[in-house]
Amino acid sequence: MDSQHIGIVGAGTMGRGIAIACLASGFRVTLSDQQESALSAASNFIHEQLDIAHSKGKLSAEQTQSAHAALRTDSSLHIHADAAIVIESIIEDRDAKAALFAQLETTVAPNAIVATNTSSIAINALSASLDHPARFLGIHFFNPAHIMKLVEIIPSLRTERTTIARALEFAKQLGKTPIVVEDVPGFLVNRVARNYYVEAQRIALERAASIEQIDRLMEAAGFRMGPFRLMDLIGVDTNLAVTKSIYEQYFYEPRYQPTRLQQAYVDAGLHGRKSGRGFYSYRSDGQ
Predict the structure, then answer these.
(1) Checking phi first, is residue 78 left (phi over 0); if not, alpha (psi -120 to 50) or beta?
(2) DSSP code of residue 60
């Protein structure tokens, strides 16, 4: 097992960001995804962002060159065989994650940490089917993962203390600010954030203010991004999935109830930046 080797499964928005954070901190990174097109797009994005970091003086020429060389991508999970930590960052679906963990347990090193970047699925529930739950926990990054400093460390009831300690040290090596939180629905940040998203949607549905007005007001109040711009960045579909998960886990408490507004955008395929349009348009043709 190589202590400087980090494996990441899932080449989407979060997987890419985590990879950049690790590469910029001197780790060797393997990134896997079943879709070759996703791997190609992720690789291009990662290399581009490393060059941008160099142009801004955040990485030296030597660090940038080393980071470029330290990335390897493949569609096979065996690429992570000697990784010290393997982080799952696939779709927010419990069954899909459980199936992946079953494969990872037969692939990774015996002492490797297997972690999930889930935003809302219970860590205890995900650990239940594992053969080695003591080395499993949540390491939850925030989007964009290579920029945002906060990382939530979420142990299950069966996670060993040494696993928690290693996860904390890893986050600190990335220059992050890790906090250990209990395995409750939404953990800490996403639970608090539901009101930011859901109440903003209700205000828009009531026509008390437009989407643009709500965002401008919240940004003027000190938030870096308004709720609708932030949902577009995260992914409108991803954000809705998290809200639904938290709503269900809290036994349908009304304060977490999703809105028909967000569901309509998801149904229409308007998923935000990644689809070219969400609550705002990101296409050059203005469509």
Answers:
(1) alpha
(2) -
The catalytic residues are 119, 140, 152, 190
φ, ψ for residue 50, nearest 5 deg: -65, -40
What would the pLDDT profile of 109-131 be if each residue is shown by its tens digit? 999 999 999 999 999 999 999 99
DSSP H or E stretch at residue 128: none
- Residue 66 parent element (H or E): helix 61-69
Burial 178-210 (b: 16+ CB within 10 A, else e): bbebebebbbbebbebbeebbebbebbeeeeee
Cα 195 from Cα 81, distance rounded (Å):
41
Record: fold of 190-275: N-(1-d-carboxylethyl)-l-norvaline Dehydrogenase; domain 2 (1.10.1040)
**Alpha helices by DSSP H, 115-254:** 123-127, 161-173, 189-205, 211-220, 227-234, 236-249
pTM over 0.70: yes
Written as six digits, the tokens of 34 are 């079943």
CATH for the 2-180 domain, from 3.40.1190.20, 3.40.50.2300, 3.40.50.720, 3.30.230.10: 3.40.50.720
Who's near 246: CB < 8 A, 6+ residues apart? Answer: 120, 185, 186, 190, 191, 194, 256
The ranges of the chain with pLDDT < 50 are: none
CB 117 within 8 A of CB 151: no
